[in-house]
Structure formats: C-alpha cells, structure tokens
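User: Show me sequence and structure for the first protein, then do the same for the second.

Assistant: Starting with the first protein.
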Amino acid sequence: MKTIQLKSRFLVLIVFFLSQVVISQETEVMIRAKSKDAKFIGTSLGGARIIVKDESTGKILAQGMTRGSTGDTDIIMNNPQLRGKRISDENTAGFLAKLDIKEPVFVTIEAYGPVSKKQAAVKTTTQQWILPGKHIKGEGIILEIPGFVVDILSPQTHESIEANTNIEITANVVMMCGCPVTEGGVWDASKYEVKALISQDGTEAINTDLKVMGKPSTFQGSINLKPGNYEITVYAFDPETGNTGVDKTNIIIQ
C-alpha cells in the first residue's frame, strides 16, 4: 500500500511538473517593406533587410531579406484601397520570419532598404506583440520606406574638366522600389523638384534645375564653372508626399 501511495505521489508530481513546462511554438510572421507612394522593395533592388528583436532583451529572433516582385501596379497604385482588401499576393516581396517563442513577446521590427543602393537606403521600425502559435501571414506587417533613389550619372567622381566648358549634370531618379518616374506617368516626373547644388570649398552653393529628359527617370541640366574643386549634390523632392533623395559627387575644374 505504501509503495502504491509513493508511486501515486510521484506521478502527481510528474504531471504537475509537466503542466508547468511551456513548450515553445514556431510562429510565422510575414514582413514586407513598401516604398512610400510606390510599390514593394524586392529582389530587383536587392531587397530590404529585416530584423526582428525581442524588445526587452535585444535578442534577435529572426532576420533575413525581402524577396519577390514589387507587386501589381494597378492594385497598389490605381485601384481604390478598401478595408480588408489585400494589395499583395503570393509573389509580392516579403520575408517570412519564423519565431521560436514560448510566451507573448513584444518585438521591434526593423526594415532597411533598398540594400543595393547604400546612398539611398533608409531604416524604419515598428513594434508589436507576437503570440506563440498565432501566425501573422497574408498581407503581414508592412513597413513604409520613404524617399527616392538618386544616382548621379555624370560628371563622374573626381573627374577633371576644363574651365569654361559646359558641364552636363545627369542624374537617375527612381522610387525606393526601383519604379521609374516618367513625365505624365504613374510617378509623374514633372511634379518632382530635382536640382543640383554646386559648392566650392564650403562656399554657399549655387543651384541649377535638372529637367526630365525623354528617357525614363533621367534628369539633366548644365552649368559653367571657374577653376577649383567642387562638390555637386543632386536632390529629388516630392512636395506632395515629402519623399526626398540625395546623391553627391566631387569634380575638379582646371
């Protein structure tokens, strides 16, 4: 009888112990990075780097890159946005984070991109509670990345140019998803302010407008400079959305 009682107590203890053990569950969270006033950042521009951290400890729970297409232009940009209606599909760029968690975790999610354009890349963050076994899929969590990607095509860095020469300044401007800007297009180049600021040895910059050419995303202007070392800063600005992008180069006028 005593042996049976001891066994019963032992079994009760085991059951109690097991009831206290919290088993971790893999929880999937779809995370996407979307260009402000444009489409998703995907494979075509190197993607966006996603990091999911436990806010209380700083531990990285998952990290990776968004992969996939920029999405459907009509659905994202042209069709009315209705509550509950998705703007992404199974091909749209995203990163499926798989978190191994035992209890509710308050996370910080970072998106940094587009990673292929370091001078334009922006980091944005959001925070949210994640519950074990409660997947967040489909549209998932979308982080917005503001700005333009601006690349100065000419003059080239540290290029030496003769004085009294007409210097052509050419820049490529696209949305953060890589989408082109064109006159009268979905992203109307004529509505953006694109300028070149030219300064010499820290002096006050002079500026010249860059106008969109026939080629998509290409803006051009010209200027004549005296001998010296110059820094050229080209910026693009959308007064409606606040999107802004910048690139710089240096030249020598002899």
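Switching to the second protein now.
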Amino acid sequence: MRITVLIAIIAILTSCATSKEGGAKKKTGSIQTNAQCGDCKDRIGDVLNYEKGIIYANLDLDTKIVEVKYNTRSTTLAKIKQTIAEIGYDADEVKAVESAQKALPACCQPGGHD
C-alpha cells in the first residue's frame, strides 16, 4: 500500500514538473546592429549570454546580425533589443543609448572603422 502511494506521489510530481517545462517556449530571433569589430562582438556576447532568459547569443561580424535564442517566458525580443541599445549599439529600430554609445572605445563608435 505504501509503495503504491509513493509511486502515485512521484507520478504527480513528475507530471507537474513536466507541465511547467512544457510551457517554456524557445524562440530564435535576428537583430541587426551597428557593431563593427571583435571587441563589439565580445561586449554584446558578454552581456547577452548572461541575461535572464537568453539561451544563446552570437554576433556575426560580416552581417552585423545578432542571432539570439531565448525563452519567451523569461524575456522578449524587444527587451533584448533594449539591452543591446543600453550597451551602446543600435538594435533594429531601437537606437543606441547615446551616453552608452559615447562610452564605447573610439573604434567601436559609428564610423570608428571607416
């Protein structure tokens, strides 16, 4: 009898844990930036890859596009764009925060590698 009850409790707990994970939705997005060099890539990656809800982020320097995989229960593409803007870079339609952009090294500012 006790074993049956224990098995039932384990089954209920397992189904609860599974249903919570089932609600998590992973999504992938692309964000156009004005990043220019390896330092930009490192700066963006260092911030995004430690943000809550972001599973993976990588900047392609050739296209200047950040590919990001994220959990929609924890963050949104709009929040990720805002985070990139707060680092000092444009992110699609979201313009860089001016004070953050001015704080970037000269080579990472718009026109710094022209």
